[in-house]
Amino acid sequence: MNQPNYRIEVTGLTKRFGPVTAVDSLSFSVEPGVITGFLGPNGAGKTTTMRMILGLVTPTAGTATIGGKRYGELRRPSEIVGAVLDASAFHPNHSARDHLRIYRTMGGHPAGRVEELLDRLGLAHAAHRKTRTFSTGMKQRLSLATALLGDPQVLLLDEPSNGLDPEGIAWLRRFLRELADEGRTVLVSSHVLSEVQQIVDDIVMIRRGTLVAAGPLREMERFRPSTVLVRSPDAEALKKVLLRGTSDGVAAQSVETGHDGALRVQGLATAQIADLASAARLRVHELLTEDTSLEQLFFELTADSEGDAR
Amino acid sequence: MNALIKAEFRRLLATRMWLWALLTAVVLGGGMVGLLTAVGPENFSPPMPGLETEEGVLSVFGMLGFTVFVPAALGTLAMTSEYRHRTATFTFLFAPQRWQVLTAKLVTFGVAGLVYGLVQTAGAGAGFFGALAARGVTPGLATGTVIELLLRLALTMAVYTLLGVAMGALIRNQIVALAVVIGYLYMGELILMMIPGVNLLYPLLPGGATASLTSFTYLADVLADELSTSPVSLLSPVGGGLLLAGYALVAAAVAVLVPMRRDVV
């Protein structure tokens, strides 16, 4: 089967709630086959943007399309797009099975789908229980099951890790990776970078309803000055060598000596440091790229944005 | 559209509400009419014509007209629970054409309201004829006419269910919607009737339309008496039924045009 390309395309999307501009001329795209992290602090406009993509909120200006069509123009939308938005959107007196059967029927999906998803999401044992007795994690999984009823090609999840325990988060990561590997488009929003850092391939970062950065996560990482931690018994000599650099002018921008005697090197990659040390016949006992500054980048890029509308 | 209607029936049958509704129908229908028949309108306070007269029979069944708030409230509850429990998010994701959602609900609850009405009037018929037989009174209305009246009452219940659904879609907030629907049916119209001039509109108000559908004009006559106006002439039963259905349709249309288009946040 020749599958259409279900990329999400957001163009000039704007939403004003009275005097508050929640989303301001936002443009980005989300590609199939990868997991895209939709990042920004609370109130940056992530939820509003996702709800506009899904036709639940009408944009003040601009468009959002999925596979070239607006959500409202999709025929049988639940077979194309699945979404998890609210932590709990169930009738409290419906059982999980009742809930899924209602929406299974509404979407016209195969009858076996309900039991299949209850199994797949580990809800089979609780299928008969009323949703008001569910824990947050179970509600999240029931929401996800609802979203997956139509076996959609596109999945949007708004803060899906909320209320999940570490085990649940690990499970969700594996699950989303499987879906992306099958060629589906996956957009996951979060206000905590570290939560999605390990699973996302691309990121779209917004602040105050405007785009801050978008693209593959690896390229984002290239922007930041990476720090390499070097332990060496010859630290002082190595520091001079690294600052002097190679004959063709590649040198460390800065080398600091930490209180533990380790060097913190900026501007050189691990391979370059190792080569320089080897050429100068200096010993290296540890060579480590510090992986913390993406969080730093996130804070810097999204700084000063508290207290905006959602 | 068929899938949406099927899904709404599933939703309706997923909780026990339908069971309680039918139980209420039996109690209000059989119980109330049976009791009123057993007591006899001539013993009411103030006394009304007895069961051997046409008015007497009509007054007993007319009481059922005061229970329309039950199916109306059920319809309102069903519609507003989508917003209260936030299931509207999933529903509008699965069915982005929101007018179709409301249409499916109107169809489903039209049928449900009719079932409610038939159960209630079947109970009422049983209670009426049972109590009459026990008292040995011959009713002032032919059996065929009574059955026709009961069917009209069943239809009234169905139309009020639709009105309830439409008002729920219009108001969205469950508590407010229920207060408006029940409040209007209980007091709103009576208060309106006290405003000089407005009472002339009575045939065109929901209460007046209901009266023409149930042929129970006692209230209208008393009001005309007390306000010393000429008795108002009601619409025909068919006219009253169509007018009520028209109110439901207008409310539904306004709901689709305004509140249902609002953002679901």
From TrEMBL, chain A:
PROSITE patterns for the chain: ABC_TRANSPORTER_2
Protein's UniProt keywords contain Transmembrane: no
Domain of life: Bacteria
InterPro entries documented for this protein: AAA+_ATPase, ABC_transporter-like_ATP-bd, P-loop_NTPase
Sequence intervals crossing the membrane: none
All residue ranges annotated as the ABC transporter domain in the record: 8-233
Keyword match Membrane: no
UniProt-listed SUPFAM superfamilies: P-loop containing nucleoside triphosphate hydrolases (SSF52540)
Assigned keywords, A-Z: ATP-binding, Nucleotide-binding, Transport
A molecular function GO annotation: ATP binding
The family this protein is said to belong to: Belongs to the ABC transporter superfamily.
Protein name: ABC transporter ATP-binding protein
Lineage: Bacteria, Bacillati, Actinomycetota, Actinomycetes, Kitasatosporales
TrEMBL record, chain B:
Superkingdom assignment: Bacteria
Protein keywords: Membrane, Transmembrane, Transmembrane helix
Residues that span the membrane, as ranges: 20-40, 60-80, 101-119, 149-169, 175-193, 240-260
Transmembrane helix listed as a keyword: yes
Record keyword Repeat present: no
Protein name in the entry: ABC transporter permease
Protein source organism: Streptomyces scopuliridis RB72
Taxonomic lineage from the root: Bacteria, Bacillati, Actinomycetota, Actinomycetes, Kitasatosporales
